[in-house]
Amino acid sequence: MSSVLYYALPALGSYAVLSIFFLRRPRLLHTPGVPAFCPRLGAHRGGSGERLENTMEAMENAMAQRSDLLELDCQLTRDGVVVVSHDENLSRQSGVNKDVGSLDFEELPLYKEELEVYFSPGHFAHGSDRHMVRLEDVFQRFPRMPVSVEVKEENEKLIHKIASLVRHFDRNEITIWASEKSSIMKKCKAANPEMPLSFTRCRVIRLLLLYYLGLLPFVPIPEKFLLCFLPTIINRTYFPFSCSGLNKLTAVVTKWLIMRKSLIQHLEQRGVQVVFWCLNEESDFEVAYSLGATGVMTDYPTALRRYLDNHRAAAPVS
């Protein structure tokens, strides 16, 4: 036993030193690509705290606040139109208990006159524009605006139509594939491999496992974006579980696992841009940027723009 320890301990020590060395200097092993854009300010659902979510009015408002990224979800209508909609079922958004896929585009109902902001419970958004929009309309209206397109269901027809639209509008480098499920992301990548990928839930777990085992510096990372919730919002503005105790436990565990400056800095140096969602309070903006995140996703682009402008103005001149 002692002879095993005699050789094992120095080997483990050498491995730990090498791992820490390359964690801090990943560019000695990996050459990061040049990002096509830098998403400091992302508008969640187009900025769903200031206008009705996913409407053209919301996106116009986000653009007026110089947003760098629109975060959108897509569904497919019965007649094959890709529409911007968070939900497949229209009950919450429109008060109509029908699925987007059961209606033609022209049959889609208007949004309700007000919608609760999911990540700001008790707050409601209003707007004069209540129409659902086609993804094609978004690409036409904002041709060079980066967009994150999340696909929630394994709908290959939807995935291929999104991929085709991105190619048609020459947006490969500025349109992000996003999905929580690895099985969906695999199909997205196959449909258009030129679009940058974001981490899925399973890939985030793998990322953290590699980080804590010290293997991350030696493993290639194909993703270009980590779009991740900020653990400090759990049980405050984000309630992933119905049980308060489980939410508290999740907040503690994920805060310990994810909120690591060394991890975020390593990813940034390797060309992976980290964007935390969905933050609607200035204290959360501060936490995210202090960790070294590239950007923040918010329902209130005006508030985040004010924060960014104020902190840029207050930054010391070098």
Automatic annotation (TrEMBL):
InterPro entries: GDPD-Related (IPR052271), GP_PDE_dom (IPR030395), PLC-like_Pdiesterase_TIM-brl (IPR017946). It is a multi-pass membrane protein. Residues 39-308 form the GP-PDE domain. GO terms for molecular function: metal ion binding; phosphatidylcholine lysophospholipase activity; phosphoric diester hydrolase activity. It is found in: Cytoplasm, Perinuclear region; Endoplasmic reticulum; Membrane. It catalyses: 1-O-(1Z-octadecenyl)-sn-glycero-3-phospho-N-hexadecanoyl-ethanolamine + H2O = 1-O-(1Z-octadecenyl)-sn-glycero-3-phosphate + N-hexadecanoylethanolamine + H(+); N,1-di-(9Z-octadecenoyl)-sn-glycero-3-phosphoethanolamine + H2O = N-(9Z-octadecenoyl) ethanolamine + 1-(9Z-octadecenoyl)-sn-glycero-3-phosphate + H(+); 1-O-hexadecyl-sn-glycero-3-phosphocholine + H2O = 1-O-hexadecyl-sn-glycero-3-phosphate + choline + H(+); N-hexadecanoyl-1-(9Z-octadecenoyl)-sn-glycero-3-phosphoethanolamine + H2O = N-hexadecanoylethanolamine + 1-(9Z-octadecenoyl)-sn-glycero-3-phosphate + H(+). CDD domains: GDPD_GDE4. The chain crosses the membrane at residues 6-23, 204-221. Belongs to the glycerophosphoryl diester phosphodiesterase family. This is Lysophospholipase D GDPD3. The lineage of its organism: Eukaryota, Metazoa, Chordata, Craniata, Vertebrata.
